[in-house]
């Protein structure tokens, strides 16, 4: 009956560097700027709305502990772990792996605390200490693959938490539902050959990474069918997302019957986001949370753990997150989304024919889940 909530001051201290999206370079004329798109203030501002709205008083705050080396090595190569620690020890820090994901000196500590926050949320929900949880962790994780970080992600927090649930807590079936607007390539890389983790990613088609996230990627060997990609055409809003959840995500979860649902919760499918071209608003995200809660009540004893991923509108992410966490907690703070008058008349909510067609093709893949 209570909702766990995790935030740590250090999540607001990630140093994403002085480039806006690419590292600043005099040669390529990418100017330094105060705020990288993934500057942690966006997530800190969500935390502060949770606090200022009073919602925090209805949540059970849980402290994150850093993940251990053993926790990380359940899903990552030792070489990746060692490289992150070595670069973190350099005076100016290093990069998660793709050259566009910088972290500062000592940044490995924040990355381990993010993974540890994910583990703690899973532990509390599976132990029955709370009925569901929202871990507002940072840096994000869903692009990190077994051997490298990528796309602002150092360690794959969700995969580390799922592996903890399977290998430490003894769960046999864990589902990841990734509604971040970008493809959940990390869990696909890590769990693609396993049926113990169902990875469902709903994302904007070829947004990032541009070469993965296709419906044809379905997992291999025993894992065939347990990778489920739902690429959406750009422009979709709550109509497309509701239809994708009703006809693909929820039927897949009902077929799989996971003992735990982990949500990779990004708010970069919002209409205000600079890194994607979808049209979700806060009420749309609230609706997705509601659908997953109802489904979790049916299949996973209500066990639902949301882990923060992306979201790059500093002004709008807080209202999206507040809506989701209010829904999880079954509490209304009476805080209206102040941007609804501006954003509510922009359209994007109706399901369009080409969106329906793309989603129907993904729905056909559910039949292989057992
Ligand atoms: N593009 C995320 O929101 C991260 O999913 C999104 C990361 C977008 C990165 C865009 C980018 C490149 C870089 C190099 C070459 C081609 C394209 F992980 C989350 F934060 F959740 O770097
Ligand atoms: Zn994203």
Write the layout of secondary structure elements.
Elements (H helix, E strand, L loop, with lengths): L2 E4 L34 H12 L6 E3 L7 H5 L4 H11 L5 E2 L6 E2 L3 H20 L5 E4 L21 H11 L6 E5 L6 H7 L5 E8 L22 E6 L5 H19 L3 E6 L16 H18 L4 E5 L8 H13 L10 H4 L9 H11 L7
Parallel strand pairs: 1-2, 1-5, 5-10, 6-7, 6-9, 7-8, 9-10
Antiparallel strand pairs: 3-4
Helix pairs in contact: 1-9, 4-5, 7-8, 7-11, 8-9
This protein binds ligand 6DK and zinc ion.
Overview of this structure, please?
The protein is an alpha/beta fold. The protein has a single domain, classed as Arginase, Chain A (3-Layer(aba) Sandwich). It is 35% helix and 12% strand. Helix 1 links the parallel strand 1 and strand 2. Helix 7 packs parallel to helix 8, helix 7 runs parallel beside helix 11 and helix 8 packs parallel to helix 9. The longest helix is centred in the N-terminal third of the chain and has 20 residues. The protein is globular. The structure holds ligand 6DK and zinc ion (ZN). Ligand 6DK binds next to loops.
């Amino acid at each position: 009956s209570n909702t766990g909530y995790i935030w740590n001051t250090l999540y607001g201290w990630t140093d994403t560097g002085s480039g806006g999206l690419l590292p600043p370079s005099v040669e390529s004329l990418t100017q330094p700027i105060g705020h990288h798109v993934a500057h942690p203030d966006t997530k800190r501002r969500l935390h502060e709305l949770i606090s200022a709205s009073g919602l925090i008083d209805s949540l059970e705050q849980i402290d994150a502990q850093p993940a251990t080396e053993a926790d990380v090595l359940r899903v990552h190569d030792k070489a990746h772990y060692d490289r992150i620690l070595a670069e973190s020890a350099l005076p100016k820090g290093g990069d998660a792996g793709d050259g566009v994901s910088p972290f500062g000196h000592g940044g490995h500590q924040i990355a381990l605390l993010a993974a540890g926050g994910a583990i703690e949320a899973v532990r509390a929900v599976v132990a029955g200490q709370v009925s569901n949880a929202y871990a507002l962790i940072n840096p994000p994780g869903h692009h990190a693959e077994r051997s490298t970080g990528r796309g602002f992600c150092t360690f794959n927090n969700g995969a580390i938490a799922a592996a903890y649930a399977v290998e430490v807590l003894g769960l046999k079936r864990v589902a990841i539902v990734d509604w971040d607007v970008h493809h959940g390539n990390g869990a696909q890389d890590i769990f693609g050959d396993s049926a113990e983790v169902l990875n469902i990613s709903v994302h904007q088609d070829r947004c990032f990474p541009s070469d993965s996230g296709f419906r044809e990627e379905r997992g291999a060997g025993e894992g065939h069918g347990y990778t489920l990609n739902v690429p959406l055409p750009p422009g979709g809003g709550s109509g497309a997302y509701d239809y994708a959840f009703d006809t693909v995500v929820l039927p897949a979860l009902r077929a799989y019957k996971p003992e735990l649902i982990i949500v990779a919760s990004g708010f970069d499918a919002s209409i205000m986001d600079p890194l994607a071209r979808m049209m979700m608003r806060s009420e749309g995200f609230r609706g997705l949370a509601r659908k997953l809660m109802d489904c979790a009540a049916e299949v996973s004893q209500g066990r639902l753990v949301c882990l923060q991923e992306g979201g790059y509108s500093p002004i709008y992410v807080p209202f999206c997150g507040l809506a989701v966490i209010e829904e999880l907690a079954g509490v209304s703070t009476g805080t209206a989304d102040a941007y609804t008058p501006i954003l509510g008349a922009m359209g994007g909510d109706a399901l369009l024919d080409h969106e329906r067609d793309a989603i129907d093709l993904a729905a056909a893949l559910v039949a292989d889940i057992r």
